[in-house]
Amino acid sequence: MRSKGILKNGGKPPTAPMSAAAPTVVFGRRTESGRFISYSRDDLDSEISSVDFQDYHVHIPMTPDNQSMEEQAAADDHRYVSSSLFTGGFNSVTRAHVMDKQPSSAARRAAAAAASSTCMVQGCDSKIMRNGRGADILPCECDFKICVDCFTDAVKAGGGACPGCKERYKHAEWEEVVAASNHDALNRALSLSHSHGPKMESRLSMVKQRAAPGEFDHNRWLFETKGTYGYGNAIWPDDRTDDDGVPGHPKELKSKPWRPLTRKLRIQAAVISPYRLLVLIRLVALAFFLMWRIKHQNEDAIWLWGMSIVCELWFAFSWVLDQLPKLCPVNRATDLSVLQEKFETPTPSNPTGKSDLPGIDVFVSTADPEKEPVLVTANTILSILAVDYPVEKLACYVSDDGGALLTFEAMAEAASFANLWVPFCRKHDIEPRNPDSYFNLKRDPFKNKVKADFVKDRRRIKREYDEFKVRVNGLPDAIRRRSDAYHAREEIQAMNLQREKMKAGGEEEQLEPVKIAKATWMADSTHWPGTWIHLSPEHARGDHAGIIQVMLKPPSSDAAMDHQEKRAPLDFSGVDSRLPMLVYMSREKRPGYDHNKKAGAMNALVRASAIMSNGPFILNLDCDHYVYNSKAFREGMCFMMDRGGDRLCYVQFPQRFEGIDPSDRYANHNTVFFDVNMRALDGLQGPVYVGTGCLFRRIALYGFDPPRSKEHSPGLCSCCLPRRRRARMTNAVGEEEDETMALHMGSDLQDGDGRMNLATFPKKFGNSSFLIDSIPVAEFQGRPLADHPSVKNGRPPGALTIAREMLDASIVAEAISVVSCWYEEKTEWGTRVGWIYGSVTEDVVTGYRMHNRGWKSVYCVTQRDAFRGTAPINLTDRLHQVLRWATGSVEIFFSRNNALFATSRMKLLQRIAYLNVGIYPFTSIFLIVYCFLPALSLFSGQFIVQTLNVTFLTYLLIITVTLCLLAMLEIKWSGIELEEWWRNEQFWLIGGTSAHLAAVMQGLLKVIAGIEISFTLTSKQLGDDVDDEFAELYVVKWTSLMIPPLTIIMINLVAIAVGFSRTIYSTIPQWSKLLGGVFFSFWVLGHLYPFAKGLMGRRGRTPTIVYVWSGLVAITISLLWVAINPPSAGANSQLGGASFSFP
Q: Catalytic site residues (predicted)?
């Protein structure tokens, strides 16, 4: 699949050698519709002399005397690769295990059935039922023929009206219809024989005559091509004429003005200008407010004033870090018609009209089939295989980091079902192309479907998918039963062998139990080389060989438009039935090696795909994120192929989720981040990488600098934290000292003539010559078209229309070697190349490194969501998810990836945004203190200010009003809703007082003492209603992360009661201080309301552990307060009576 020759001839596409003697065959050109135009030698003289037509191919059309044949040797080797399981690894020989392929279930079924009457509903030609006498069952008197399924749909969805005459059926149950049909079958048959004779004659006249299977159909070929036979070719008398009216010559291509692929849509000035003005006003108000707070201390409670002023200073600093990167939000739009015109339309450089788009390698990662159901992963794979992108330019790689046979066989089932699902999607333009999501749509599936056989095809595919789900869900039991059976057979064979040896030795027959490792068996009666169900040495989760299996072989370069299998259950004639390449991979794992979790798996995919397909672009998806928009790949490619697209490292798509409760109680949609923050970053240097739904440029993942990189102004805090400017000095081999520096595509890696110096690559990328040779090819193929003088670093049009090389065993064997556990040793994988190691959030670090080298990224928000996935709606699962993100941010802050150490190639506001990524968890320390301040104020009878004067209230009003106005304008330019913004504010406080605080503690202990703390579940309560779609929302799983917010709730509730009691029974009530404390307490409780509601479970059934912890915390805080500030006689006298004493 590698194309090594693309960089020859000075960066031009490779040319085929011309023979010395003039060829004696008839030349022809293939047009965009697949037709062939004959040429004479005189016609070719003028065109061959041009540069664009120096390399031509002789096309012989599909006529009855010419049938296509493949070379037998190449076909046999290709078949050997696609039907073999390759394994290998450290100190082991790479082996190819030939596997016997079984025919699919769809192919085993007979496609023909007995001829009978068909349903008259438009779009359905299913057979109608007959009664016991052999007569058609007609539910309506109008004799409208209808099948059982359409009758059921008409009764349920159509109000019980006949689709023919629109009258209501007399019988609404099918059993009643059958009984009535048997009663008057004789009379209906007599009436039909007299009154419907012409219908019967017309029905008999509609018998179709088809050519025998495998025979060339002359009439069909002439009809579909609208051609006539010429001298060895076909000509077009209708629509392909020249200026003289002579048929056989296409029209000349007209020069069209150059059009961009993308447009930047700036926010309206009526929205963004007031937004920026409000930011400035609030910033000034905060500065004056903090100055006033510092000058006016509360002498009565200096400790309360001190804590509040420290927290407010940090909140102001955190708000500035969060707000400044939002000053330049942008929107973007793509033009898919221009993309098709430039890359898939016949031009002088691409006369055949083949796709000139670059290849895309799609990575899907999974690790545990128990936590990540294989049916979900299979649906994701099916949605990828069915995308609207050139089939020969697409390859899908599944990384199974657990090495489970269950995932392997589920992917095999998905590859088999794809033979029906993918052509069905292409034929009827299905959206979405995830079968599970498509069949569970709430809307009408027949809307905008015009083909007559759609209803029949959909029902058949639905039946096939139901069987596919049954097979996939039954795989665990099938694998277990198969392994038990083979294990029993092995034990019997071992015992028989032992008995024979004892008989041959003349010993008494005293058999000892034979101990044989209980292996996991594949369907071809061989041991599974990956992880076994019963773990054993070399077959455990962290100890198994590397595995690569080509599930679907690389497709041919020509579309199989008229291909129709003999036993195919559906008619896919005229539909491209090719499938993209699908590869299953499980990297080698051995004890004693650090495999670096997901980042290590992704880097293994990068190396294996570079050898097998080498797509210049890489799209990574989580196993639960499927393609919701089949044109999303094309939308992302518009940015990469546009002018200046060679400086883009990745295109990030927003994450959209399904299965979220309608109220979005825990802000799982995260729309404020994906629609506000990410759009704002798109106006700077680009959005951050969020781990999935991202289209990468392969050369950027390799650690290269972008072309034409710029140096920006000095970075943040350069005046107070001066940095030594890094000199661009390298040693003799071009190796730089700092790992954050990139592998420059400039002078240090190039020879004097401008070519890359590949001699320096082995110490960076490893010793695989295949991998090293693929790097310049990927760089060349990823360039935009040089179709305009302003396009720099472009490639000539038509360079990627050449068919890729076929896969052979040596290529797959090399791919096995680069996924071994030892390959990354003494290389720069994980430090400068690929996904970066050393952080839980490897995605943010990887994106930061690219931006730090000067690359840019863009945010692609499509009109129809590009991808959709799932998110945890349970409170505990959501908190643990936020804990992992916050832990990664703390690790970033204490590492060299801190934005304070960024290079001058990163813009200032982009650096502030990355600085906020590492700092935001530390806000939890001040936030939890501030949440206790209202309670402390109510307990002590004091407030953060001396008195609630007009100045304080004015500042507070200005800050609050400007915050609300900023929120309204953000909602305006981002398109989110007010409820979503409020849910985000609520969960910011919930996460800040729970998961963020735990992440800071964990990060500090790891940095200072080297101690790692993991927060795990301790108890679990099951949901009540398993049929409820959102039953998981009401499941309460106790975790230690719930202690801080639960404590805050209890203390504030107790403080409100104490404050009211103190004020009511005091001689001189201090209502102003009470109102201030109560207002802020209700502010805290209002933000924590979703948390409290989550603890209640369904119908208010709160677990006992919540009450126990609440009581213990309340008693502890009360005793602590009494010990610190014991009640005095003077305090009791102020309560207005000796009969009452406040505790």
A: 401, 843
- Catalytic residue, candidates 356, 664, 675, 843: 843
Of the chain, the end-to-end C-alpha distance in Å amounts to 82
Who contacts 243 (Cβ-Cβ below 8 Å, separation ≥6)? none
Per the annotation, does 1066 bind a ligand? no
* Annotated binding-site residue? 429: no
Q: Which residues in the chain come in under a pLDDT of 50?
A: 1-72, 101-116, 186-255, 563, 566, 714-742, 746-754, 1015-1026, 1130-1143
DSSP symbols for 279-318? HHHHHHHHHHHHHHHHHS--GGGHHHHHHHHHHHHHHHHH
Q: What is the pLDDT of residue 250?
A: 40
- Beta-ladder partners of 95: 87
Residue 1 CB partners (closer than 8 Å, separation 6+): 395, 554, 581, 612, 613, 614, 804, 805, 806, 807, 811
Report d(CA 215, CA 226) in Å as an integer: 20
Q: What is the pLDDT of residue 1104?
A: 58
Question: pTM higher than 0.85 for the full model?
Answer: no
Contact present, 995 and 886 (Cβ < 8 Å) = yes
Look at residue 63 in the predicted model and tell me its pLDDT: 40
Q: What is the C-alpha to C-alpha distance for residues 982 and 622, in angstroms, rounded to an integer?
A: 28
What lies within 8 Å, CB to CB, of 54 at 6+ separation is 15, 18, 48
User: What is the spatial distance between Cα 416 and Cα 414, in angstroms, rounded to a whole number?
Assistant: 5
Separation CA 123–CA 1120 (nearest Å): 76
pLDDT of the residue at 586: 94
Active site residue 401: yes
Taking every pair of C-alpha atoms in the chain, what is the biggest distance, in angstroms?
Answer: 123
Structure tokens belonging to residue 151: 């009758």
Binding residue per annotation — 401?
A: yes
Is 530 within 8 Å of 89 (Cβ atoms)?
A: no
Q: Is residue 1006 marked as binding?
A: no
The three-class DSSP label of residue 974 is helix
SS3 834: coil
- Tokens linked to 283: 């910033």
Q: How many CA atoms, within 13 angstroms, populate the side-chain half-sphere of residue 901? A: 14
Residue with tokens 């295990």: 97
CB 798 within 8 A of CB 630: no
CA-CA distance, 494 to 516, in Å (whole number)? 9
Are the C-beta atoms of 802 and 13 separated by less than 8 Å? yes
Q: Which of 1022, 1021, 1017 is nearest to 1039 (CA)?
A: 1017
Q: How far apart are CA 992 and CA 443, in angstroms?
A: 39
Run of H or E residues at 620: strand 617-622
Q: Are 438 and 627 in contact (CB under 8 A)?
A: no
The tokens of 700 are what?
């950027």
CB atoms within 10 A of CB 626: 27
Single-letter amino acid, residue 237: P
- Calculate the alpha carbon distances from 276 to 287, 507, 686, 965 in Å: 17, 96, 20, 11
* Strands (E) located in 1022-1125: 1037-1038
Measured between alpha carbons, how far is 398 from 372 in angstroms, rounded to an integer? 13
What was the pLDDT predicted at 426? 92
Q: 566 labelled as ligand-binding?
A: no
Annotated catalytic residue within 401, 576, 675, 865: 401
DSSP letter (8 states) at residue 566: T
d(Cα 331, Cα 264) in Å, to the nearest integer? 6
Report residue 1134: phi and psi, to 5°: -75, -10
368 is in an annotated binding site: no
Please write down the long-range contacts of 443-446, taking CB distance under 8 Å and 24 or more positions apart.
446/123
How far apart (Å, rounded) are the C-alpha atoms in residues 980 and 23?
70
CA nearest 897: which of 881, 882, 911, 883? 911
Q: Which two tokens stand for residue 522?
A: 């594949």
CA distance 589 to 530: 10
Is 675 annotated in some ligand binding site? no
Q: Are 1025 and 1098 in contact (CB under 8 A)?
A: yes
